[in-house]
Design goal:
about 750 residues, mainly beta, five-stranded mixed beta sheet
């Protein structure tokens, strides 16, 4: 029966594709192009081979001895569900897959999802994430600008991009939810959510230690121990050290290598279970990072001030001033070190009121403190340096009531959410290009307080045994207060509110396949600019933005559970899109200012494929494909030179094509098990700078990882390599208001040896 159902889902798409691909199409060539172009989006036409393939019948029976893909349980809707039963676009990695990836941090795990781009912007210590899903995200270090993609760790939404590149330590699962998730997840999840969960205490004595050593003199140690205190208390302790004693960059001015990092973390997790109905869990995670100031490259071009007036010109649009993307010419007048400290505390209560009704409360506190002195111009003269000590603190409370009775037609979650955050940065800019033979010292302190509260619900109602209606909504109120002191002194406050609904239908074709359609609205509050050049810019807020997402999808298992194919197609209407612009300024003292403005409208549509296959004993394959078309419909900006039409620009970090393929082959070798892994990820050409400057455009990139592993008893030995093709694309790039452009390169080829050992108590 399956062999008859899946082709039906794709045959109409395949028919339209054939009509648009065959020579005549029943029309003249010009008319054909116009008709087909309006009928099928460009990204869908790119998927023609996929549609034609999917329209062919699959064999209904697997070969004898075929493996079965393990069930993946996700908490994408705040309750545990099989990923194949959830009517949203979600990709997930299990703990085994995370370990096999030899991930250092979140950047090494994003291969799990199509249409996801995540880079370190190198604009500050601790990992400043630029996370984009389906072309929606933020590329700014300034904490006044809220994330558009939520990074959620153990149920706590991280309210800034700094610290968002979470270390891959003790992770149980990684889930990527694509599209707005505002119904159930915290604040500003307008593009999607990256949800990470750490392991829980087991209560049984045992643990694991891992040690690896790699090039760039990189020593990494991890340890985990579990034990119980009686029958009702389980404890887990963790520790980690990641010490990279040699930087990726060579400094041609100082002769030293730059980019060294030392990261340490300590964790304690206590699970109290006084009875079968109640659980109390407390988690503390203490992280300390000491590192070099993240190195930058000057990629200035003719026409920019630093090139024309000072001679710092790149030889072409692909090469920095230093002549090599792994060499820098920066020269800090001061200490070349930075720090980032983060303390996380989480308290969670899980109470089973009845067999079907449960109450959950989760409190989260996340505090960060950082210091850094940055040479933004990345050349020897002191043209544009800043020191940026900052503190950030957030607390959140979430209360949820969940009804989950398998025998009832109605299931759902309702709750309340309260958020508070405080941020202060004491910025000092040292400007050496404005006045000959004089370095200006320009202080500016920025403070922001944010409060938010929300009421939310989401429910499923089974209309029939096969058809389920999902519906929900969230009402959110946000208030922000800004206080500026220094070159500009001003204060202001404003508030925003929004109700964001969601509705979907899910139809089960049979036990192994279902289709769904979803309508959802996402919201990100307005705010105030953090770096300002006038009282007007400090006190005039920018507006909130909204995304309306229309999505259809198919989730299916084939060949007796050895093949999984999930497909989603979406269209998103973006209203009042917030964009961070680098603009010239005659009043800031620095010659430039960063402002957020609202684009009128944008449209994003695309197609996503997730697939897993176990074709033979010991062999597993996994892949995904993302096709994306993201463009402004109408974007006019009123600048110093009048009205500028920016509608022609490409949206940042929105490649037309993303793809990934990974393979693992395992076999018995002697008294143990051996396996090989291979991973390939493709990022199509894309922009990392808002203005689409040619010197900051990334060409297509092929990121290749591999490992060889052997496990005998409780010990595992592995050889691993990342970015083996040594792609040198930019993780960040900014054209600084016509003064110069700077960029930072992704990590180069790294490799090493890892040994791990698991132990159990008597």
């Amino acid at each position: 029966m399956q062999a008859q159902i899946l082709p039906v889902v794709f045959r109409r798409l395949a028919l339209l594709t054939r009509l648009c691909l065959r020579p005549a199409c029943g029309r003249s060539p010009g008319a054909k192009a116009s008709w087909c172009g309006s009928l099928i989006p460009r990204s869908i036409r790119i998927a023609a081979p996929l549609a034609l393939l999917a329209a062919q019948p699959f064999p209904a029976e697997a070969q004898e001895g075929a493996q079965v893909i393990e069930e993946i349980v996700v908490s994408a809707r705040k309750r545990e569900e099989n990923i194949q039963d959830v009517g949203i676009a979600v990709s997930a990695l299990s703990q085994t897959e995370i370990e096999q990836a030899f991930a250092r941090d979140l950047r090494d795990l994003v291969f799990v999802s199509p249409n996801l781009v995540l880079d370190d912007t190198a604009q500050g210590p601790g990992g400043v994430a630029a996370a984009y899903i389906r072309g929606i995200g933020v590329s700014e270090v300034e904490k006044n600008f809220d994330p558009a993609v939520g990074v959620v760790v153990d149920g706590i939404f991280l309210g800034t991009m700094t610290g968002g590149i979470t270390q891959a330590i003790d992770l149980e699962s990684v889930e990527v939810l694509r599209g707005p998730q505002g119904t159930l997840f915290g604040r500003n999840t307008i593009g999607g959510v990256v949800h990470l969960r750490r392991t829980q205490p087991t209560g049984e004595t045992g643990g694991k230690v891992r040690a690896s050593y790699g090039n760039y003199d990189n020593l990494r140690l991890e340890g985990l121990v579990n034990f119980g205190l009686g029958d009702q208390v389980a404890v887990k302790l963790t520790g980690a050290l990641d010490d990279q004693n040699e930087g990726f960059y060579d400094n041609v001015n100082t002769g030293r290598d730059e980019g060294r990092v030392e990261y340490q973390s300590f964790g304690a997790n206590v699970l109290l279970t006084p009875n079968d109905q109640l659980e109390l869990e407390y988690t503390a995670q203490i992280e300390r990072t000491d590192q070099d100031t993240p190195p930058l490259l000057n990629v200035g071009q003719p026409g920019q001030l630093f090139c024309n007036a000072f001679g710092f010109c790149s030889p072409d649009t692909k090469t920095p001033v230093s002549g090599d993307r792994w060499k820098t010419t920066q020269d800090l007048v001061g200490p070349n070190d930075a720090t980032f400290d983060a303390d996380t505390h989480i308290l969670e209560l899980r109470w089973s009121l009845t067999d079907a009704l449960s109450l959950d409360y989760i409190f989260g506190s996340w505090e960060t403190e950082e210091t850094v002195l940055t040479d933004w111009d990345a050349v020897a003269p002191e043209l544009f340096h800043t020191t940026r000590p900052a503190e950030y603190e957030q607390t959140s409370h979430e209360l949820r009531l969940t009804l989950d009775d398998p025998g009832s037609r109605l299931r759902g979650t309702a709750g309340a959410y309260v958020w508070d955050s405080e941020y202060e940065i004491r910025l000092r800019s040292y400007i050496g290009f404005a006045v000959p033979n004089l370095v200006l010292d320009l202080p500016q302190t920025s403070r922001q307080d944010s409060q938010s509260w929300a009421l939310f619900f989401e429910a499923d109602y089974d209309l029939t045994d096969r058809l389920t209606l999902n519906f929900g909504g969230r009402y959110t109120e946000d208030e922000k207060d800004t206080d500026q002191a220094g070159v500009v002194t001003a204060d202001a406050s404003d508030d925003w509110s929004k109700f964001t609904p969601k509705a979907s239908l899910l139809y089960r074709l049979n036990d192994d396949a279902m289709i769904y359609g979803t309508y959802a609205v996402g919201y990100r509050s307005g705010g105030f600019n953090g770096r300002v050049d006038s009282i007007e810019n400090a006190t005039t807020p920018y507006d909130e933005e909204t995304v309306t997402n229309y999505e259809v999808g198919l989730k299916s298992d084939w060949l007796d559970g050895s093949l999984r194919i999930n497909v989603a197609a979406f269209l998103m209407d973006y209203e009042d899109k917030q964009e961070e612009l680098q603009l010239p300024s005659a009043t800031s003292g620095t010659g430039q200012v960063t402002l957020v403005t609202n684009a009128s409208t944008a449209e994003i549509y695309g197609l996503e494929l997730d697939a897993q296959w176990l074709p033979a004993p010991g062999l597993s394959l996994r892949g995904n494909l993302g096709l994306l078309d993201a463009q402004y419909d109408d974007f006019e900006f009123i600048g110093a030179t009048g009205v500028q039409d920016l509608s022609h620009l490409d949206i940042r970090r929105a490649p037309d094509v993303t793809a990934a393929l990974s393979a693992t082959y395992e076999w018995t070798a002697g008294s143990g098990q051996a396996w090989l892994t291979f991973g390939w990820r493709y990022l199509g050409k894309h922009e990392v700078d808002f203005a689409n400057k040619p010197e900051l455009t990334n060409s297509a990139q092929h990121l290749v990882n591999a490992s060889a592993n052997y496990e005998v008893g409780a010990m595992r030995i592995s050889l691993f390599g990342r970015n083996l093709a040594e792609e040198d694309g930019y993780g960040i790039g900014f054209d600084v208001a016509g003064l110069w452009s700077y960029a930072a390169t992704r990590p180069p080829r790294t490799y090493g040896l890892e040994v791990s050992y698991s132990f159990e108590g008597n």
